[in-house]
C-alpha cells in the first residue's frame, strides 16, 4: 500500500472478462484514479466506464481510438488485451503508450524480460527510456504461482533438486468460440497440429509466455538452464460435448496439456504443466485444484493452492479474475516508482489494507 500519500492516474486497456475485473479493482481502490478506458468494440465506445464495470458512473467515457488514450495524462496503463496470434502482436501499441510517458503493466505474460529475444528487449527498452517509464507483466500464472509462490516455498529447504507447478483450468464456461476453437485449439483433430512447434499460433504465444516463467524460476533459484523442452499434447473427447462456446465432437480435442521442462545436464529441474480441460475426463482422479506446487529437496514441499469468491460479493466475477486484478492493482505503485526500463517485479508487492 502507498499509505494514501499519492493517488495514481490509471488507464484501463480493454474490457474482456479479465479487463473488466481489473477495471472494477481500479475503480474500487482509493489510491487509484481512473482517467481513461480503451475498448476495441465501437459499441462500447462512448459508454461510461462505470456502466461497463457494473459500478456507479465515473464520468470517464470509453474510447476505441488509441489517439485519445495516448493524449491522456496518466501514470500507468493496465494492458489487458486478448492474447494475440503471436506473443508480441501488441508490441506496437505498447511502444506507443510507453513513448507517450505512461508506464505499462501487462496481464499477458511479459514477466521475465531477460528471456526475450534481444530485438524485442531492445525495442521495448528504448521505448521505456524515451518515455521515462517502465514496462512489466503480472498475473496469476504467469506472474504469481511459479515466480513467487513456488520460489518462496523453497525457502524452507536446505537443498533443492527440482521444482514443479501443475495447473488445471476448466474451460467449459468460456463463451467466445473464436477464443476456444481458434486460439486455444479445442475441437481440433488430435494430431492435426504440431503443438511443440511455434508454427501453430497458440503454441507460439504460450511458449513465449510460459518459457519466461520457467526461466524466471530457474534464475531465482540460481540455476542456469541448458534448454527448455516442450512436451505438449491434445487428448480426445470420449463423447460429443456441448460447451458454452459451441460443440466439441467426439474424438476431437477436449483436453490440452502444455508442459515446459527446464533442463540441466539432461535432468529436469523445473516443470511447468498446464491442463486446459472441458471436463474431468482426462484429469487425474477428478482433481480440480487450481495449482499444485512441489519442491523436491530437504525437506520435500507440497502445496495445493486455489482462490475462492468471498461471500456476499455481487456479480459473476470469478475468484481467479479477482485474483488477477489483485496482482495488477498491487503492482501499480511498484512499477510507477521503478527506474525507467524493463522490470521484473519482486517476490512481494504492496496491498491495500481493509477497514
UniProtKB/TrEMBL annotation:
Limits of the Dihydrodipicolinate reductase N-terminal domain: 14-82
Q: Which domain of life is it from?
A: Bacteria
Record bears the keyword S-adenosyl-L-methionine: no
Keyword Oxidoreductase attributed? yes
Cite the entry's keywords alphabetically: NADP, Oxidoreductase
- Where does the 2,4-diaminopentanoate dehydrogenase C-terminal domain lie? 210-345
Q: Which GO terms describe its biological process?
A: lysine biosynthetic process via diaminopimelate
Q: Which GO terms describe its molecular function?
A: 4-hydroxy-tetrahydrodipicolinate reductase
Listed InterPro entries: DAP_DH_C (IPR045760), DapB_N (IPR000846), NAD(P)-bd_dom_sf (IPR036291)
Q: What is this protein called?
A: Uncharacterized protein
- Recorded source organism is Hyphomonas atlantica
Amino acid at each position: 500500500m502507498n499509505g494514501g500519500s499519492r493517488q495514481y492516474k490509471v488507464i484501463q486497456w480493454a474490457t474482456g472478462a479479465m479487463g473488466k475485473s481489473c477495471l472494477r479493482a481500479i475503480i474500487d481502490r482509493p489510491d487509484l484514479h481512473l482517467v481513461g478506458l480503451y475498448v476495441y468494440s465501437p459499441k462500447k465506445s462512448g459508454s461510461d466506464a462505470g456502466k461497463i464495470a457494473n459500478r456507479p458512473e465515473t464520468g470517464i467515457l470509453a474510447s476505441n481510438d488509441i489517439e485519445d488514450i495516448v493524449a491522456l495524462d496518466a501514470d500507468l496503463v493496465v494492458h489487458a488485451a486478448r492474447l494475440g496470434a503471436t506473443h508480441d502482436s501488441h508490441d506496437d501499441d505498447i511502444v506507443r503508450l510507453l513513448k507517450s510517458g505512461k508506464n505499462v503493466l501487462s496481464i499477458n505474460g511479459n514477466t521475465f524480460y531477460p528471456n526475450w529475444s534481444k530485438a524485442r528487449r531492445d525495442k521495448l527498452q528504448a521505448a521505456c527510456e524515451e518515455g521515462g517509464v517502465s514496462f512489466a507483466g503480472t498475473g496469476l500464472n504467469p506472474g504469481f504461482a511459479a515466480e513467487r509462490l513456488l520460489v518462496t516455498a523453497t525457502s524452507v529447504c536446505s537443498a533443492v533438486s527440482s521444482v514443479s507447478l501443475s495447473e488445471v483450468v476448466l474451460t467449459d464456461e468460456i463463451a467466445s468460440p473464436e477464443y476456444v476453437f481458434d486460439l486455444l485449439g479445442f475441437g481440433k483433430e488430435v494430431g492435426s497440429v504440431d503443438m511443440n512447434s511455434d508454427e501453430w499460433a497458440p503454441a507460439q504465444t504460450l511458449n513465449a509466455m510460459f518459457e519466461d516463467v520457467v526461466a524466471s524460476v530457474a534464475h531465482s533459484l540460481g540455476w542456469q538452464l541448458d534448454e527448455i523442452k516442450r512436451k505438449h499434447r491434445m487428448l480426445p473427447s470420449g463423447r460429443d460435448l456441448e460447451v458454452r462456446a459451441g460443440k466439441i465432437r467426439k474424438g476431437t480435442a477436449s483436453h490440452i496439456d502444455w508442459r515446459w521442462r527446464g533442463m540441466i545436464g539432461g535432468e529436469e529441474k523445473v516443470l511447468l504443466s498446464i491442463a486446459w480441460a472441458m471436463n474431468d475426463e482426462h484429469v487425474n482422479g477428478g482433481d480440480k485444484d487450481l495449482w499444485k506446487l512441489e519442491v523436491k529437496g530437504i525437506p520435500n514441499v507440497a502445496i495445493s493452492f486455489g482462490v475462492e469468491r468471498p461471500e456476499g460479493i455481487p456479480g459473476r466475477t470469478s475468484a481467479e479474475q479477482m485474483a488477477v486484478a489483485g496482482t495488477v492493482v498491487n503492482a501499480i505503485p511498484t512499477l510507477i516508482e521503478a527506474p525507467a526500463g524493463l522490470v521484473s517485479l519482486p517476490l512481494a508487492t504492496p496491498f491495500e489494507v481493509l477497514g
